[in-house]
Amino acid sequence: MLLEIITPDKKLFTGEIKSVSLPGLDGSFGVLNKHAAMISALKKGRIKVIDAQQQTQTFDINGGVAEVFQNKIIVLAE
Questions:
Q1: Nearest by Cα to 77 from 40, 33, 50, 32
Q2: How many angstroms separate the CA atoms of 36 and 70, rounded?
Q3: Cβ-based neighbours of 2, under 8 Å, separated by 6 or more
Q4: How many Cβ atoms from other residues are within 10 Å of residue 17's Cβ?
Q5: Beta pairing partners, 25
Q6: Which domains occur in the chain, in start order?
Q7: Strand 2-6 and strand 72-77: pairing?
Q8: What angle do CA 75, 43, 62 make, to 5 degrees?
Q9: Which positions ≥6 away from 1 have C-beta within 8 Å?
């Protein structure tokens, strides 16, 4: 599954991942391979990524939007 995390200034992350945890407005949620299509607003919090090599990375955001479609996740973050 491909993940892109984009801010107005730069791309924070682009790559293949195993899973991602996102700070949704109604609580944190995870996305795994072949997840159903969805769009969600994000609040201030931490994105936790587990990449294809099982390495964990975290990114702090001030809010944004996440779109999941056809095994690709795009996060537009502040």
A1: 40
A2: 8
A3: 14, 15, 16, 17, 71, 72, 73
A4: 20
A5: none
A6: 2-77 (2.60.15.10)
A7: parallel
A8: 75
A9: 16, 17, 18, 31, 32, 33, 34, 35, 71, 72, 73
Q: Does the predicted model carry a pTM greater than 0.85?
A: yes
DSSP single-letter state for residue 8 = S
* Token digits of residue 45: 């919090």
Query: How far, in Å, CA of 4 to CA of 42, rounded?
Result: 15
Taking only the tens place, the pLDDT of each residue in 6-43 is 999 999 999 999 999 999 999 999 999 999 999 999 99
- Cα 20 from Cα 9, distance rounded (Å): 22
Neighbours of 12 (CB within 10 A): 17
